[in-house]
Design brief:
heterodimer; A: 566 residues; Butyryl-Coa Dehydrogenase, subunit A, domain 1; Butyryl-CoA Dehydrogenase, subunit A, domain 2; Four Helix Bundle (Hemerythrin (Met), subunit A); 3 domains; two-stranded antiparallel ribbon; 11 strands; B: 274 residues; alpha/beta; Rossmann fold; two-stranded antiparallel sheet; 27% helix
Chain lengths: 566, 274
């Protein structure tokens, strides 16, 4: 009877030790809903208790229903027959359970049937679902769709769509990518035109659409044929009817339970969401940022699954007269895996909380002109802009590394279908690709590193660290990043900055994550050791990066032709 | 078309997670050492009732006889979708055998304004008697359909079910009211609703007529104390003997396809697996 919430001491640690009362107070607005809804909390403690109750129920579903079916879901996969997509049986069953337990409106306000939970808790939920079956997260995690309708839709649209999302009647999809517009969404060409009847109609093809068979699809389309680039795009709500054709679904390396569709719209009626021309620059970015955080949490969950498989195998497999976990080379791998998972979870949790705060302030700001709110909103917004891509980079690259090492610990049998690690290994591979590759995330985060956002946040966080040794180490990290930034600025060539961008952003991630772990170190001796290992590895890596950035000549950016076109 | 349904549930020690001190030296179950859960097939019974409620409407009253702690089980049933719960808790009910239990449950059911269908789990994982459901039906003088795994048809007048008879099934029809015992083959019980779980987290069983979990004692149901608990129980445990299963025979099976299918065939013929 595994419960993926109760058996995860680190999740329990976060809930018991990290104060998220600020976001609870903002979201619950003086707890005034307690008199309207029986399930609304009456205090911060009450809200925390509610979150724990929910995660306990979800942990039970994940451990006892979803995880045991994951293997079959992978084998059966989502199928495409006669123009229609069919989920694997296990996927259907899992969705039914999640719906019965009221989990499909996680962050949506109560008045539309949701739980009104913060993203901070939603991230933990996504992690647990992903640990059980990474492919299910792609359906469970599509709650971003309803969240986007909530944030940018009219009241009529909210009332029309949200209750059905919350009750599980509607599933959602976001249709952004096209054959010629992947990472570069500005190139989207699917046409939206305003008919004489005053309605919008969509024509064109979208590709790589997760759950493209959904009831409600948010479609990014060119509503302004004369405006090229991002400003010519708007976002539309399309309710499935006969004007859509699913052309095929992709055969993928992993996440087989999640159907990835190519869909064609032919004169498909749709509603505009929000304002024209803001489709990409405002709504899609918001939608994608939410989705990126979701994928980061998915990475943590996949890594958790991989680590546990490796741990169990290493504990039971005997060679040379003892369990292989007794060998330093093996347990060193396990320690690094565990430390990295806890580090990523901490970063995702922290980021989710910042995003929550940003969104709550944004909502408050929209309803009042209070200038003090604006200042806080700006601060959180700035932090969120680099923390979200950083979380995705760190958690998804970590998931791949952990899955890789977990398979390594299994040895030869890990490469066979007899053990589940091979599935987890395949599933991990998409996380650092979809919702923006690691390279795109680096691009999104580099500004925060170069222009001081990361340093400001670090300075704030350092104040909360007690342990002087850890603090010393963090200063060392900071010095490394500082000298790299100085050097990059001195060189003054943007190509050179982009060349080193991945390293610079990673230095920023090391710095912030080390701070977070160092803060937790005062709560628990074990956490002190976790912080120690993470920090020491980060310091070593930082010196390596610094050495490379400072020593390679800036003319390296011209090496491309000679080296690649030999 | 809606139905008044009653579901009888029992809190049992979780015998699927056996720990070392699961048995007392005298051979009885050490209830303190094992976590208390709702008898699994009772949840299947509740799930059937909830499905009927979803499709046809109606109300579900869950009844459990047990110590005060059994209110946890009832709270869980409410979270799954029951409307109301009754906890029969009284020192006079302690140490009931199936006869006394069914008497007490039947008296409680008689206090309800009306009922169309009573659902029970096929049997409990602690006593494994499968007797309480049938005895309740006898005492209420209504039909009983046991080992049900499918409700094929339901109208206001009658019900058609499929009963598991081991190597096949039997289709039976009965007028209402009726008592069904549901087997685990019927369904996988749904998870509790988070909204309800949050709303009911502080819910306690209370005396009187108001509340979601009513606390009833022998007076509330007009039960004769001499027919309840130890006094009303005819079963006396004379002795519990520990049986140690020993193997007498040993066979080596080679890991080839033929040998393994041979082994499987043999095990099936001996009804060890089926």
């Amino acid at each position: 009877m595994p419960n993926f919430y109760k058996d995860n001491k680190d999740i329990l640690f976060l809930l018991d030790n990290i104060d998220i009362s600020k976001i609870i107070l903002l979201r619950e607005k003086d707890f005034k809903e307690k008199d309207i809804y029986e399930y609304a909390p009456s205090s911060v403690e009450d809200a925390m208790e509610n979150y724990k109750i929910a995660l306990d129920i979800l942990g039970d579903i994940c451990g006892n229903v979803v995880a045991p079916m994951a293997k079959d879901v992978d084998i059966e996969g989502a199928r495409f027959e006669n123009g229609e997509v069919h989920y694997a049986n296990g996927t259907k069953e899992a969705l039914q359970r999640l719906t019965q337990a009221d989990f499909m409106g996680f962050t949506i306000p109560r008045k539309y049937g949701g739980l009104n939970f913060p993203k901070t808790i939603y991230s933990l939920a996504i992690e647990m679902v992903s640990r059980a079956d990474a492919s299910l997260m792609n359906l469970f995690g599509l709650q971003e769709i309803s969240e986007t309708i909530y944030r940018f839709g009219t009241e009529a649209q909210r009332k029309k769509y949200l209750p059905k999302f919350c009750s599980g009647e509607y599933t959602g999809a976001m249709a952004l990518t096209e054959p010629d517009a992947g990472s570069d969404l500005q190139a989207v060409s699917l046409k939206a035109h305003l008919g004489n009847d005053g309605r919008w109609y969509l024509d064109g093809v979208k590709r790589f659409i997760t759950n493209g068979c959904a009831d409600i699809i948010l479609v990014l389309a060119r509503s302004e044929p004369n405006i090229k680039g991002a400003r010519g795009l708007s976002l539309f709500i399309y309710k499935r009817d006969e004007h859509i054709k699913i052309r095929r679904i992709e055969e993928k390396l992993g996440i087989h339970g999640s159907p990835t569709c190519e869909i064609m719209f032919t004169h498909a009626p749709a509603e505009l969401l929000g304002e024209r021309k803001l489709g990409l620059v405002k709504y899609t970015f918001s939608l994608m940022n939410g989705a990126r955080l979701g994928v980061a949490a998915q990475g943590v969950g996949i890594a958790e699954a991989a680590y546990r498989m490796a741990y169990d195998y290493a504990s039971s497999r005997k060679q040379f007269g003892s369990s292989i976990i007794e060998f330093p080379q093996v347990y060193e791998m396990l320690i690094n895996m565990k430390v990295d998972i806890e580090a990523a979870r901490r970063l995702v949790y922290f980021t989710s909380n910042i995003v929550d705060l940003k969104e709550s302030f944004e909502e408050r700001l929209a309803n009042s002109g209070d200038k003090t709110l604006k200042k806080e909103f700006k601060q959180y917004s700035r932090y969120a802009s680099f923390l979200t891509p950083m979380s995705k980079i760190f958690a998804t690259e970590m998931a791949n590394r952990v899955a890789y090492d977990a398979l390594q610990i299994h040895g030869g049998v890990g490469y066979t279908k007899d053990f589940e690690i091979e599935r987890v290994y395949r599933d991990a591979r998409i996380t650092n690709i979809y919702e923006g590759t690691t390279q795109l995330q680096v691009h999104a985060a580099i500004g925060g590193v170069i222009t001081g956002g990361v340093m400001n946040l670090t300075d704030e966080l350092i104040l909360k660290i007690n342990d002087s040794n850890l603090k010393q180490g963090i200063f060392e990290l900071k010095e490394c990043l500082d000298s790299c930034i100085k050097h990059i600025k001195e060189v003054g060539d943007s190509q050179f900055q982009h060349y080193h961008a991945r390293r610079l952003v990673e230095l920023g991630i090391f710095l912030i994550t080390s701070c977070l772990l160092a803060i937790d170190a005062k709560k628990d001796l074990r956490k002190q050791k976790v912080a120690d290992i993470f920090l020491n590895r980060a310091i070593a890596k930082s010196h390596e990066y610094k050495k490379y950035i400072l020593s390679i000549p800036p003319s390296v950016i011209n090496f491309k032709n000679e080296i690649l076109n030999d | 078309m809606s139905f008044n349904m009653v579901v009888l549930v029992k809190q049992v020690p979780d015998t699927s997670n056996i720990v070392e001190d699961a048995m007392k030296p005298d051979g009885t179950v050490n209830r303190d050492a094992l976590p208390a859960i709702i008898n699994p097939e009772d949840l299947c019974a509740l799930e059937e009732a909830i499905k009927i409620k979803e499709n046809s409407g109606g109300t579900i009253t869950v009844i459990s006889m047990g110590p005060p702690k059994a209110e946890d089980a009832l709270r869980y049933c409410l979270c799954m979708g029951a409307d109301k719960a009754i906890l029969l808790s009284d020192r006079k009910f302690a140490a009931s055998d199936t006869l006394a239990t069914s008497y007490t449950l039947a008296k409680a059911i008689e206090k309800l304004p009306c009922f169309d269908i009573i659902f029970c789990g096929r049997q409990a994982i602690d006593g494994d008697t499968a007797q309480v459901g049938p005895q309740v039906a006898e005492k209420l003088n209504i039909n009983q359909l046991t080992y049900v795994f499918n409700i094929a048809q339901l109208t206001k007048e009658y019900i058609v079910v499929k009963r598991d008879i081991g190597d096949g099934y039997e289709v039976c029809k009965s007028p209402l009211p009726v008592l069904l015992t549901i087997s685990s083959k019927a369904n996988t019980p749904r998870p509790p609703s988070v909204k309800r779980a949050m709303a009911y987290k502080n819910l306690k069983a209370q005396k009187g007529d108001n509340g979601l979990i009513l606390l009833w004692d022998h007076n509330s149901i007009g039960a004769d104390p001499n027919r309840c608990g130890l006094k009303g129980s005819k079963t006396r445990v004379k002795k519990v003997e520990n049986v140690v299963l020993k193997t007498f025979d040993k066979k080596d099976i080679q890991p080839t396809l033929d040998c393994i299918s041979g082994l499987l065939k043999e095990l099936m013929e001996d009804h060890i697996i089926g």
